[in-house]
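About this split. The held-out portion is used to measure sequence recovery: a designer receives only the structure tokens and must propose an amino acid at every position. Recovery is the fraction of positions where the proposal matches the reference. Here is one held-out target exactly as it appears in the evaluation file.
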């Protein structure tokens, strides 16, 4: 029985020693990093509150969408039909534009073919084909006729430079002339 008494009396000493060690360790850690721990806890609390409200709002939107999709299939069908009608209308407009473009290309090709035929005929007759090729363009243009336009004569002004001026030779240039530097090493002493 002595042994049992010794074990019982020894236990509280170990527990108090462990509590004392824990108290010193935690106390020193709080003394060193207490403010950091406090601000970290406050920051985590604020972040969790923000995330929780966003998560709740996201869940609510998700449930609202699921309910709206399940309750109103007629609205979805109407929306898809309207989309199909709009796409069909746009495709018809595009097809009409393509047809107009093709018609313009056909007309241009026909005009070119007709001009080539006229040019060939005029060459066969011995006429100049360039003069005939210009006539349809002049007839189509609604501008003034060639008889009313008087061509401008070249003025009889004196040219700015003489006929013998060449900027690469350095001649005829007046007071300023450039000459390349001497080749070879500089002569110095």
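Reference sequence for scoring:
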């Amino acid at each position: 029985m002595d042994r049992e008494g010794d074990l019982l009396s020894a236990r509280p000493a170990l527990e108090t020693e462990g509590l004392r060690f824990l108290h010193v360790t935690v106390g020193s850690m709080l003394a060193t990093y207490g403010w950091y721990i406090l601000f970290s806890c406050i920051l985590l609390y604020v972040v969790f509150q923000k995330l929780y409200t966003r998560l709740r709002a996201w869940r609510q939107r998700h449930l609202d969408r699921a309910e709206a999709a399940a309750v109103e299939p007629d609205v979805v069908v109407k929306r898809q039909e309207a989309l199909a009608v709009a796409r069909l209308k746009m495709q018809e407009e595009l097809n009409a534009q393509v047809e107009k473009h093709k018609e313009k290309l056909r007309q241009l090709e026909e005009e070119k073919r007709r001009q080539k035929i006229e040019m060939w005929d005029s060459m066969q007759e011995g006429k100049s084909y360039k003069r005939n090729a210009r006539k349809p363009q002049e007839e189509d243009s609604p501008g003034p006729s060639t008889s009313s336009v008087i061509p401008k004569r070249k003025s009889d002004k004196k040219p700015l430079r003489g006929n013998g001026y060449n900027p690469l030779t350095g001649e005829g240039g007046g007071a300023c002339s450039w000459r390349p530097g001497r080749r070879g090493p500089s002569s110095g002493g």
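Annotator remark: The two ends are 118 Å apart (CA to CA).
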